[in-house]
């Protein structure tokens, strides 16, 4: 099993910034992808940004390109989401997600979610 712990959400004014953090822990796992999803009020969960080990590529939802940056610390099994120029439409619960092999089985793991509220 892989456990994910998130931090960094909160209330911020439009135009402000926040940085989300997520750290994975467990035994005998190999991370092949890390990312952030969000779910706003009345909306389905959507991908915000992700990194995949194959080629080390990153991709972003169109709505956050140029404003959000995903990064990771492989030594700490951590992934971060730097969010700049935040807009009220970014208000959502943000979830960290990790794709990992535990033994021979690939699985997707989720964090507990952290609330981001953008409001004046």
How does this structure look, described?
This protein is mainly beta and 120 residues long. It has strands at 2-7, 10-12, 18-26, 29-39, 46-52, 57-60, 68-73, 78-83, 92-102, 105-110, 114-118. Strands 2, 4, 5, 6, 9, 10 and 11 form a 7-stranded mixed beta sheet that branches. A 4-stranded antiparallel beta sheet has the order 1-3-8-7, with no helix packed on it. A hairpin with a 4-residue loop joins strand 7 (68-73) and strand 8 (78-83). It is elongated and about 45 Å long. The mean pLDDT is 95.
Features:
single chain; 120 residues; mainly beta; 4-stranded antiparallel β-sheet; 11 strands; 0% helix; 62% strand
Task: Quote the average pLDDT.
Answer: 95
Beta-strand share of residues: over 45%
Helix fraction bin: under 10%
Low-confidence stretches: none
Shape: elongated
Task: Please report the distance between the alpha carbons of the first and last residues.
Answer: 40 Å
Task: Please state the CA-atom Rg, rounded to the nearest Å.
Answer: 14 Å
User: Biggest sheet, open or closed, and with what strands and sense?
Assistant: 7 strands, mixed
The count of DSSP E runs of length 2 or more, i.e. the number of strands, is 11
Structural class: mainly beta
Number of helical elements: 0
* Elements, N to C (H/E): EEEEEEEEEEE
């Amino acid at each position: 099993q892989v456990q994910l712990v998130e931090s960094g959400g909160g209330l911020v004014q439009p135009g402000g910034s926040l940085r989300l953090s997520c750290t994975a822990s467990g035994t005998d796992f190999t991370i092949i992808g890390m990312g952030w999803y969000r779910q706003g009020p009345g909306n389905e969960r959507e991908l915000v940004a992700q990194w995949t080990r194959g080629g080390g590529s990153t991709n972003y939802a169109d709505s956050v390109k140029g404003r959000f940056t995903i990064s990771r610390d492989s030594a700490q099994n951590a992934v971060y989401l730097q969010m700049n120029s935040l807009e009220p439409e970014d208000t959502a619960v943000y979830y960290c997600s990790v794709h990992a092999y535990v033994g021979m089985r690939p699985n997707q793991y989720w964090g507990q979610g952290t609330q981001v509220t953008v409001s004046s």
